[in-house]
């Protein structure tokens, strides 16, 4: 059994439409991750209970809290988020925090999976604001704090399936993208949403590299109805704490039914457009990466099969697991693509 932290206390949720897989109200928590894959979120212990237990143990042992311990606790609190915890079945066994934060794709910091953890510390994430513009009635530069107040922070435990045929299960903390877009009041002519990552070569060593496939900044895009779907979130944390820099601090997109490359990190701009926005992988290799990039076990990448996936953390000799249509979210999202030929619009 592996123990990992998940902190924060729930704030009350505002009145709004309940997402298809939205969480119910719960308190922040300590997760006891068992070997079994059929865990429910009800196995989660509220943090308050855990903290009380710790206080009782410390008191019983007659321990004085040292200055260093108090500082460590204060630091941990500064990073902890308040959020409404997930209270539904888990979509698989949670991936360990260590794996989520050390096996990354973030080309701005290098091409090796281990580079983002090594180099992303150079990124300044405070202050941070996001420009929302294009076909909206209320364009502007929104400071991160104000943007996050658009809605209540929620935990969303989602599968993440990379186009490279590996997968994880990540407990994100974020807000529905729909609430942010609604706040900017899209014009009737808006049909797509374009996203842009920060361009700051002095902090992002990959952007300074003499050769790069990507024409920086990294960009991504969604159709407006995909962006407004209740499963789509802007995440600002994971495992109960602020987003680690290597995972896209302070704000990244998460679209769980699409290949991971759509989930753009460290977003500084959101633009509503009438035409489909250009995206880097599609522009580079249209035959390999589509604009839609919906997880689809029946449409192989030209160089490898998409029928199964390697589960990160499952061990070198573990069997691959079958990939699910729309990454297991077909019930919620297949209606978005009714009548479309998914072998053509991949
Ligand atoms: N966003 C930016 N800005 N730069 C990137 O290189 N890589 C994408 C996506 N978002 C990427 C990005 C890819 S290919 C994947 S699979 C996911 O981030 C990986 O997210 P993770 O490192 O949190 O697992």
Tell me the fraction of residues in β-strands, as a range. Answer: 15-25%
Oligomer: single chain
End-to-end separation: 39 Å
Q: Averaged pLDDT, please? A: 84
Largest sheet: 7 strands, mixed
Number of self-contained structural domains: 2
Bound molecules: ligand MTE
Fraction in helix: 10-25%
Spatial extent as radius of gyration = 20 Å
CATH architecture of the largest domain: Alpha-Beta Complex
**Category by helix and strand content:** alpha+beta
Q: Please provide the ordered H/E string of secondary-structure elements.
A: EEEHHHHEEHEEHEHEHEEEEHEEH
The helix tally amounts to 10
Shape: globular
CATH class of the largest domain: Alpha Beta
Characterise the protein shown here:
The chain has helices at 47-60, 67-79, 97-100, 115-119, 144-148, 177-184, 205-208, 224-227, 280-284, 330-333; strands at 2-6, 29-33, 45-46, 129-134, 140-143, 154-161, 166-176, 192-197, 219-223, 233-238, 241-242, 252-254, 267-273, 308-311, 321-322. It folds into 2 domains: 46-79; 84-337, Oxidoreductase, molybdopterin-binding domain (Sulfite Oxidase, Chain A, domain 2, Alpha-Beta Complex), CATH 3.90.420. Helix content is 19%, strand content 22%. By secondary structure, the chain is of the alpha+beta class. The protein contains 10 helices and 15 strands. The strands form 3 sheets. Strands 6, 7, 10, 11, 12, 14 and 15 form a 7-stranded mixed sheet that branches. The chain has a 5-stranded mixed sheet with strand order 5-4-13-8-9. Strands 1-2-3 form a 3-stranded antiparallel sheet. The radius of gyration is 20 Å and the shape is globular. The structure holds ligand MTE. Ligand MTE is lined by residues 104-108, 160, 162, 197, 218, 247, 260-261, 263-266.
């Amino acid at each position: 059994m592996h123990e990992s932290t998940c902190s924060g206390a729930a704030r009350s949720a505002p009145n709004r439409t309940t997402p298809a897989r939205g969480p119910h109200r719960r308190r922040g928590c300590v997760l006891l991750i068992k070997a079994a894959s059929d865990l429910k979120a009800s196995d989660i212990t509220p943090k308050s209970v855990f903290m009380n237990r710790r206080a009782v143990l410390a008191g019983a042992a007659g321990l004085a809290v040292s200055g260093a311990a108090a500082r460590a606790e204060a630091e941990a609190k500064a990073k902890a988020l308040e959020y409404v915890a997930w209270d539904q079945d888990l979509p698989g066994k949670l991936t360990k925090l260590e794996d989520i934060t050390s096996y990354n794709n973030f080309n701005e910091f290098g091409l090796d999976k281990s580079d983002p953890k090594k180099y992303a510390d150079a990124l300044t994430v405070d202050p941070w604001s996001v420009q929302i513009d294009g076909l909206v009635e209320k364009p502007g530069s929104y400071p991160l704090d104000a943007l996050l107040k658009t809605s209540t922070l929620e935990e969303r435990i989602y599968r993440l399936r990379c186009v490279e045929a590996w997968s994880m299960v990540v407990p994100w903390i974020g807000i529905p993208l729909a609430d942010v877009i609604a706040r900017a009041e899209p014009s009737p002519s808006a049909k797509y949403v374009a996203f842009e990552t920060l361009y700051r070569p002095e902090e992002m060593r990959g952007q300074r590299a003499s050769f790069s496939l990507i024409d920086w900044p990294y960009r991504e895009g969604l159709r407006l109805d995909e962006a407004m779907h209740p499963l789509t979130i802007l995440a600002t944390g994971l495992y109960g704490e602020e987003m680690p820099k290597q995972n896209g601090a302070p704000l990244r997109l998460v679209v769980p039914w699409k290949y991971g490359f759509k989930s753009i990190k460290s977003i500084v701009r959101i633009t509503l457009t009438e035409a489909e926005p250009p995206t880097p992988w599609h522009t580079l290799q249209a035959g390999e990466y589509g604009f839609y990039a919906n997880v689809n076990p029946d449409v192989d990448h030209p160089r490898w099969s998409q029928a199964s996936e390697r589960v990160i953390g499952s061990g070198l000799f573990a069997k691959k697991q079958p990939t699910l249509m729309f990454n297991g979210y077909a019930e919620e999202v297949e209606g978005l693509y009714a009548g479309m030929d998914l072998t053509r619009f991949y």
